[in-house]
Design a protein that fits this description.
Layout: H1 2-17, E1 58-64, E2 72-81, E3 87-95, H2 99-116, E4 120-121, H3 126-131, E5 141-151, E6 154-167, E7 171-178, H4 186-197
Antiparallel strand pairs: 1-2, 2-3, 3-7, 4-5, 5-6, 6-7
């Protein structure tokens, strides 16, 4: 279990921080010559088309995820690039029908979430604030964090948001947004992408930040 989490974490960190580097050869990721969401992998149907995010966005790569088969029946990772260097990483995972797998899969994804939070510089006082927020539209359970991206241990100053979302009946999403998505940054941006993937909200490029 731990080794699979480390491999998935490695994929997400490398792709999000070095989004123009080839995915081929990374453990747990399968490079596709043609990006065709929703055809080969049922989880890929949850990946939005880049046009949904507005002008200037592209889906630059996608691949399958190496996940524990006793917990997940499918998993897909999509990487998008946008204006002014903005990037979105969206991972969609489908849980097996086992009742035990539902909770264990969330715990597995939460471990990944906590590991990945080390890639952000953030104010720990925001944890309580974000924990009190209701889940994004379409999610029944969520965790999120935001701050600025780190690269090679240095704070880049680039706003970054991370959202982990569970949705009925069998979906877990992990969304990372660096830079701006229309008017949104931080967890507002990653929340909006998660809701969009679940069909619970319109295009985030025209959404309004929470409290705005």
């Amino acid at each position: 279990m731990a080794s699979r989490r480390r491999r998935l974490l490695l994929i997400i960190v490398l792709v999000s921080l070095c989004p123009l580097a080839p995915v081929r050869g990374l453990p747990g990721a399968a490079q596709e010559a043609t990006v065709t969401p929703g055809v080969a992998d049922p989880a890929a149907a949850l990946l939005p088309t880049p046009e949904t995010f507005g002008d200037g966005w592209s889906l630059v790569r996608t691949g399958g995820l190496d996940l524990p088969t006793e917990l997940f029946r499918a998993g897909t990772l999509g990487v998008y690039t946008g204006p002014a260097g903005a990037r979105i990483l969206a991972a969609a995972m489908l849980v097996t029908e086992s009742r035990v797998a539902v909770r264990r899969s969330w715990e597995e994804a939460a471990d990944l979430y906590h590991n990945y939070s080390g890639e952000l510089a953030y104010d720990s006082d925001r944890d309580d604030i974000l924990d009190r927020l209701p889940p994004p539209a379409g999610c029944v359970e969520a965790k999120r964090i935001d701050g600025t991206a780190r690269q090679l241990g240095l704070d880049t100053g680039i706003p970054m948001g991370l959202t982990l979302c569970a949705a009925d009946p069998d979906v877990i999403l992990l969304v990372v947004v660096s830079g701006a998505l229309g008017p949104l940054t931080g967890h507002d941006a990653s929340d909006a992408v998660a809701s969009l993937m679940l069909g619970a909200a319109g295009p985030p490029a025209v959404a309004t930040p929470a409290g705005g």
